[in-house]
Design a protein that fits this description.
two-stranded antiparallel ribbon; 8-stranded mixed β-sheet; alpha/beta; 245 residues; globular
Length: 245
């Protein structure tokens, strides 16, 4: 199995699976709100187990979000932008539908710029173009990955959104068509109490309308990344590796 290295890349602290000195693809995997920076690292090991051919060809980078939530009652937790925790908890406890389509969260653009800066530093190290960079993210990290993917001048290799949702709709409606034919994998639990399934379907519809090559993975579960989704994600990354080969 690969070694795990902690590094500051750009302004973000990152954990990096050192699998190859000359990778063919970079996978940047962003965690959700309230999680520690290493939250998704175990998923990297599963992806490599499901698709061993990724081992010597993919550099996996797990950036930690810039905001520290310890003073907000979540020790070790990180966030890409702040949420109203009381409002979120009330919505979950009362089963209220959370429609975030019109929301451009304060901090979204700053986190987008920081993540892009980190990826640019990785690209400089690896000499890989944007179409050799895959963006993956869970929940808030999936929203951020989508924002980055849609806002770039050049198209990334692909986008994976685990349990994300539609935000910043006005801007994404304008920018998403520039990603026509970009591969995108989106998964969501039909019993997700944090980000409603219907809102994920809105994101799916936007992507399909923009001409994105969209793969949809609904599942009977909650706010999570189940093993079948990880298996499909591993296949998705293999397809990205072999797309030009």
């Amino acid at each position: 199995m690969p070694g795990l290295e902690q590094r500051t890349i750009g302004n973000l602290n990152c954990l990096v699976y050192t699998t190859s000195n000359s990778p063919d693809l970079v996978a940047v995997i962003s965690h959700g709100f309230g999680a520690p920076g290493d939250d998704l690292v175990p998923l990297g090991a599963h992806l490599l187990r499901f698709a061993p051919e990724l081992l010597d060809r993919v550099l996996m980078v797990f950036p930690a979000a810039p905001l520290n939530l310890s003073e907000h009652g979540i020790p070790g937790g990180r966030a890409w932008w702040m949420l109203d925790m009381e409002e979120l908890q009330q919505a979950i406890s009362h089963g209220e539908f959370r429609d975030l389509r019109q929301s451009q969260p304060p901090g979204l653009i700053d986190s987008r710029n920081q993540l892009v800066e980190t990826i640019e530093a990785i690209r400089e190290e690896t000499s890989l173009p944007w179409d050799r960079v895959a963006l993956l993210g869970f929940s808030q990290g999936g929203m951020l990955s989508t924002e980055v993917a849609f806002s770039l001048e050049e198209s990334p290799a692909g986008l994976v959104v685990w349990s994300g949702t539609l935000i910043n709709e006005a801007e994404w409606l304008k920018s998403a068509p520039r990603r026509e034919h970009m591969p995108m994998l989106q998964s969501h639990g039909q019993r997700d109490m944090v980000l409603p399934f219907q809102a994920a379907q809105w994101l799916r519809s936007l992507a399909i309308s923009a001409g994105i090559n969209h793969q949809w993975l609904p599942f009977n579960g909650g706010h999570e990344v189940p093993y079948p989704v990880l298996q499909e994600t591993a296949r998705f990354l293999v397809d990205l590796l072999n797309r030009d080969g």
